[in-house]
Amino acid sequence: MKKNKFLVSFISIIMLFVLNVAALNEEQAVMSNMDILVNGNKVDFCSYMIKGNNYIKLRDVAAALDNTDSKFEVDYQNGIIYITTGKNYTYQGGELTKGQYTYVTANKSSQELMINNEYKPLATYNIFGYNYFRLRDLGLALNFEVDFDAQTSTVIVNTPENQISDVQAVLNIVNTEREKAGVQPLILNDDLCKAAEKRSNELGELFSHTRPNGESCFTVLSEFDITSYNTAGENIAIRYSSPYDVMNAWLNSSGHRANILNANFKQIGIANVDSRWTQLFIG
Hints:
Layout: H1 2-24, E1 26-31, E2 35-38, E3 41-42, E4 47-50, E5 53-57, H2 58-65, E6 72-77, E7 80-85, E8 103-109, E9 112-115, E10 118-119, E11 124-127, E12 130-134, H3 135-142, E13 145-149, E14 154-158, H4 166-180, E15 187-188, H5 190-203, H6 219-222, E16 232-238, H7 243-251, H8 254-260, E17 267-273, E18 276-282
Parallel strand pairs: 2-14, 7-9, 15-17
Antiparallel strand pairs: 1-4, 1-8, 2-3, 4-5, 5-12, 6-7, 8-11, 9-10, 11-12, 13-14, 16-18, 17-18
């Protein structure tokens, strides 16, 4: 009897261990309600939020990027996913269809992925038999840009032919916010951009509206022959990785937002040097 009790207990321990391991590989996934724009157009992906990140069905991404510079083909052979970039996607049916359930269980997957015959160890979850990958990971691996506009809770996807500079992205957001506030848009001034670039370089020495030489930030304007103005302003920030991140921070700060929406300002200079951002305004 003792042996049987020991055997039963031992089996129970093994079963408990197996169940715990299975639980460790599971995550709750919540259907994402975020808008996703691909080259400016809204696309309805089947996407889920898992641990704070957007995971999207691989074939949905392939379908959405078909006929762009980031197009790719998907093939599945002998348990391995093969991606070939530069080829049009072959539709299987059911792509770009919203999921039916708000809450689902996502299982961590050891799915092997080859991109152009090179192994890529990307985080993968399996949901209802489909492979879901983190969108930012796919962007890095497949040459498309992924960003997030916190003001509108919108995921921004741009392929190379549609990507714009940091300066243009900031300008677009600035003028969108000014339009909402009923204020005239700002004109981008090349000389102001050069002055802003110098200020961004200086922020690496001293993060302040005072320059490293002790002068006011606005003394940089005369160094680029900018003298015809009645009023000026400066916004600075560091350690923001994208135009959307830095603009979200500035717009949620009363002083910075006041500069962005100031009706007296007519022109702007914008620069980003190693995640050191500067906006210079004149009017």
